[in-house]
Amino acid sequence: MSVVVGLTGQSGAGKTLVSQIFAEKGFGVINCDMAAREVTEAGSACNRELSEIFPECFDDKLVLDRRALGSIVFADRQKLDTLNTVIFRYIDKLLDEKIAQYSIDYEYVLLDAPTLFEAGADKKCDVIVSVTADEDIRLKRITERDSLDEASVKNRFASQHSQTFFEEKSDFVIKNNSKSEEAVRQTIDIIDKIKEDKIGSKIN
Q: CATH second-level architecture of 3-197?
């Protein structure tokens, strides 16, 4: 079985860039956002279950309105937890299948997972890497990137873990407050460390 590295972090911290570097360095990358989209395809078993809880977010063909769902759950922690309980059950099974498939071709597999801990996917990982940045920097990045107002972005932040949480739960942390070149340097250093140590179990 491959060495599985979990990549997670705060919204707007720059995880996409870090994931690209891992891919360039030979890691097989499993995008967990895409896995979530797979399990919520029109008419899926997951959608049938979610439509009983959030009927206003589905049409008669069980097509999910992601924007409508996001506006609901990011403003209500309890509803977000309810969503996660359902969707992570389906994602968990799919990730096991994908890790097994990727392990055929890759010595190292990256789980690119914004909700790594919430989904319990951290238990599948040998190493965990988190990307963080100060809130004002993340706010600026997301409002410019997604054309969202500050209130909407701050609601999203409020539903996520703190920087301290990621620092305590991770084996490596990339602090991405400056230029992208520094994030690249930090990422390459971590990749070299993982490969150099031939990590096959979590670092203590």
A: 3-Layer(aba) Sandwich (3.40)
Average pLDDT per consecutive 10 residues, the chain (204 residues; last block may be shorter): 94 93 97 94 97 97 95 90 94 95 96 92 97 91 82 79 93 91 95 79 42
For 107, the token pair is: 């010595």
| Cα gap 54→34, rounded to integer Å | 21
Cα–Cα separations (whole angstroms), residue 24 to 19, 170, 191: 9, 22, 11
What's residue 173's pLDDT? 96
What whole-number distance in Å separates Cα of residue 109 and Cα of residue 98? Answer: 10
pLDDT of 146 reads 80
Which tokens sit at 70? 């996001």
Burial tier of 151 (Cβ tally within 10 Å: 0-12, 13-18, 19+)? exposed
| DSSP H/E element including 88 | helix 77-105
Give pLDDT, residue 50: 97
How many Cα atoms occupy the beta-carbon half-sphere of 102 within 13 Å?
A: 22
Burial of 160 (0-12, 13-18, 19+ CB in 10 A): middle
Per-domain boundaries in the chain: 3-197
Across-strand partners of 172? 129
